[in-house]
Amino acid sequence: MRLQSIPVIRASAVVRFSDEKAALEVTHRISQSGLHPANARLISAMESFSMGIGNGTDTVLLLGFESHDHDQEPKLSRALDIWKEGGGSWNVSDVSTRRDNETVAPETSEQWKTNFLRAPYIRNSLVRCGIIMETFETVTTWDNLETFHTKIIGTVETAVRETCGNGIVMWRFTHIYPDGPVIYYTVIAPGRRGEELSQWDTIKAAVSDAVIANHGPITHHHAVGRDHRPWFEKQCPQLFLSVLHGMKSDLDPGWILNPGVLIKSPFNKSE
Fold first, then answer.
1. Structural domain spans, the chain
2. Which of 57, 93, 202, 239 has its CA 20 to 30 A from that of 160?
3. Distance CA 41, CA 60 (A)
């Protein structure tokens, strides 16, 4: 067991970019700067607007640093320099260096956090009203990002238009690594009563095919599960599947734990 002290020293800021491409380039720079932010979320103009923190045209970057030991202001100061060089702008009220017992986080960050936690409940209400909703996550490398992102957005928009007539496609980065970002895409579209599930299936299949066709994993950190398993099997080398099958058979010979979730169960021929 590894125990660590809880961070109490924090520094954060909210930066806006009128140019989406500039926002992507700055985020790339931050990921390889050695600053290692504890939180880094780049949010598309549409998604930031839907979360109550944007004007509908600016891409918004939320960045935070934290420690239990030392001041984080120098890291934030360097990040602000990078943002300024890349064309970002911010309000004084959206920059904060603090200890947990001293001040609260910037209002915009708190607004995003509140709405982010509310989102699943809102989603459930929208689904009950016949709205098609889907969020899928994947990851790519920085050198592949522009091509990958363009093709995924294009595929999703086409699938939504052909399946539902219209809809909204939003995205955000939830993690950034020196190698590349983790991207969440969100689809919201009108459903036809009684056909919502088949519409969702059609969109899900189109976007999943596009993800693996453009060399992105079918998921990043939310596991595979039954919905994603067909695409996981397409991506996964047969040798690795065989190893997984052997481990499962040795450690859980009755295939009791989540059978068929990651790999096919030998006891269920209908899978």
1. 9-98, 130-224, 236-271
2. 57
3. 8
